[in-house]
Amino acid sequence: MTRILIADDEAAMREQLAEALSQAWPEAQIVAQAEHGADAWDQWLQHEPHACFLDIRMPGLTGIEVAQRIAGRTPVVFVTAYGDHAVQAFEAGAVDYLIKPTTPARLAQTVLRLKERLHRAGAPADMLALQAVLQRLAPPRAALPTTLQASIGKEVRLIRLEEVLYFESDARYTRVVYQLNGQQHDALLRTPLKELLVLLDPAQFTQVHRSVIVAQRVMASAVRDDEGGMQLRLRGSLDLLPVSRPFHHLFKGQ
To answer: Is 142 domain-assigned?
Structure first.
């Protein structure tokens, strides 16, 4: 059964699209609905849907930024209320789009395109075109923080991002592991990992698992096990971190 993810910050629009899809694509299953970009990306990692319908303008990560992270591994349909220049750019790339409110005829056309794409192997040229379009459309990022506030017992400590080794989900909190004066320490952040991801520079930090984000400067090697899993070794630390299947492509080698 085809799995679908819907992301829109308006509940009414999510429900409307879900109902319309149930009519246009009854054999598909909506496995997740998200109200903002960070949650959409987290849900994509959890469910690995076959197709995504992403609102362009969402808080946190935009639909375009979520599509950049998906990186062509799942067909994306952008949903927008604005018939601006983005629509022409989408037509030039390997993506589809819907204007709100969509019509049954237009949605049926989109579903047909998705079915055709899901039944053929994605061409590398299409993926490159998609990434080029998304790079052009991605909004400029706001200034990113250089420090984070973390709890250590009764103390609130300011941890510089340049000291961080990795972040790991820990129940309701995020565990941050960092080095200070040659020693490894850890502390707890109140910010969930999926929200923290929005605050981090993707040129410096890489997500390797739904629950793990690693500083690129300490990534040493990725090792496969006999069961097809993968673990990441770090420079200056004995910790081994899991690499989930959606991120194996980061370590394909040459």
So the answer is: no
